[in-house]
Amino acid sequence: MSLKIKNETIKKTTECKTNFSCFNQKTRACCEVEQNVGGTVLFVKYTPEKNCNYMVSFGSNYTCNCPTRKEIFNRYKI
Questions:
Q1: How far apart are CA 44 and CA 35, in angstroms?
Q2: Fewest CB atoms within 10 Å of the CB: 9, 14, 38, 51?
Q3: How many CA atoms lie within 13 A of 47 on its CB side?
Q4: How far apart are CA 34 and CA 20, in angstroms?
Q5: Phi and psi at residue 4, in whole multiples of 5°?
Q6: 22 CB-contact burial (10 Å; exposed 0-12 / middle 13-18 / buried 19+)
Q7: What one-character-per-residue DSSP string does the chain give?
Q8: How confident is the model at residue 74 (pLDDT cuts 50, 70, 90)?
Q9: Where are the domains of the chain?
């Protein structure tokens, strides 16, 4: 499935150092969402091999602050 993301969202994603791998149809290297809070806060499963500028430690959990990842989840539930 090809994902469509707003250009304004991609422009807001200025800290991506994985070349938008979560958006790539072949790799689809998204962090797994464990919990969604109102579409604005995504708690994600921590994986050490993912070195993402948008993954933030929150106590014993991790959140994703990536605008592109949030839109992917909110639109496609993946």
A1: 7
A2: 38
A3: 11
A4: 20
A5: -115, 125
A6: buried
A7: ------HHHHHH-TT--S-STTT-TTT--PPPEEEEETTTEEEE---TT---TTEEEETTEEEE--HHHHHHHHHH--
A8: very high
A9: 7-76
**DSSP SS3 for 69:** helix
Residue 3, amino acid: L
Global pTM value: 0.89
User: Whole-angstrom Cα distance, residue 48 to residue 38?
Assistant: 26
CA distance 15 to 22: 14
Measured between alpha carbons, how far is 72 from 23 in angstroms, rounded to an integer? 8
